[in-house]
Amino acid sequence: MNPAAAKVPGVTERSTAPAKGRPQKRFRLSKRFFAYLALAGPGLIAANAGNDAGGIVTYASAGSEFRYRTLFFMVLVTVGLVVVQEMAARLGAYSGKGLAALIREQFSIRLAALAMLCLVATNIGLVVSEFAGIGAAFELFGVSKYLSIPLAALIIWALVVFSSYKYAERVFLVASLAFLSYPIAAVLSHPKWSSVVNDSILPHFVGSNAFVFLGVGLIGTTISPYMQMYAAGGVVDRGIGPDEYHLERVDAVAGALFANVVSCFIIIATASAIGGRGPLQSAKEAALALKPVAGSGAELLFAIGLLGASALAAAVVPLSTSYAVSEAVGVERSVSRKFSEAPLFLGLFTLQVIVGAAVALSPVNLIKLLILTQVFQGLITPVILAFILILANRRSVLGNAANGRVFRKVAWATVIAVGAMSLLLVGQSILPVLKAVSSWI
Question: Is residue 333 one of the residues assigned to a domain?
């Protein structure tokens, strides 16, 4: 008998069992943690891919032009991203199918074709902007884009087609972690925290076309259609089912929150460093926000982060298109397959990389290109979100995992709000034209 136990009345040898149970409990917790790490990926990668070249420039431009006034808007967009990304991951886990396959099965061919047309159109522009971002990053290192872009395109293509994209995405994510320096830069630049908190809690919208234009861009770069296609496709490709979904849900929600916290700090750091200058004109201006933490090495740090973020998205965006089109057609799609086993999937990925790199080599204004692609995404986003929401509401698709009453209301509010912003931008763009035509008539 345990001597210590014998000294206490009523305590026997068996009473020491809980002490033995503590290591078992810790073991179970650590097992759950490592199980999460094993599944983590689609949600985290999809959300962080939104902090790509276009995302960084759009967030930085928001801070440069409107200081902290877009922070409340970003809080609302963050809620929208969490809701949408969770639905996309749930659809993939419980149905075992990607979004494009579900749209093809649940809607008419015309509606499915509309969804694919919207996705392909916006993704082509995004692939161009990602390779343009890679070129801009290397130019900050003093390397010509005419050398860096073709080389980067070849490496990204080879990693996905011949190697394992699973390892490549980890490398890209590590490189893009350089943007975690933005929270540090935001603190070291001594922003007006009272204004930051106030503008994050209360709306401070500006009644101008520029604010609406940038607002749609923020929606487009944060709740990107390709991110949701990739999130659902990645869940299916990794074989994550209903039994593992509780872990994948953590991945989807945590990934969205993490990515948007970084996004908000990009706005804060840029607003503190160069707020009030107006729209950004170059990548070097965006790098100025990192001066408090990197000093003269701000451009170098920015270049490293820009390169990692752009390379990650340069792989994710064309993959999302390949997933979607292959699912819609009903053919094999997986990064684990050989070219002979998935010719359309890998062939389409190859074509997008070639076209994106080739167009990025043409003389373009990087800042304008990046922001315009995000705005175009914002215009397309309501279409894809409507499909996702309707699918997640259907018990014929998800059974008991379909949206509940409260979640359905929040999701509809998100889709309607995004659609309203897009329509407002379209209205503001068309109104001057209509006035000119009426005056001419």
Answer: yes
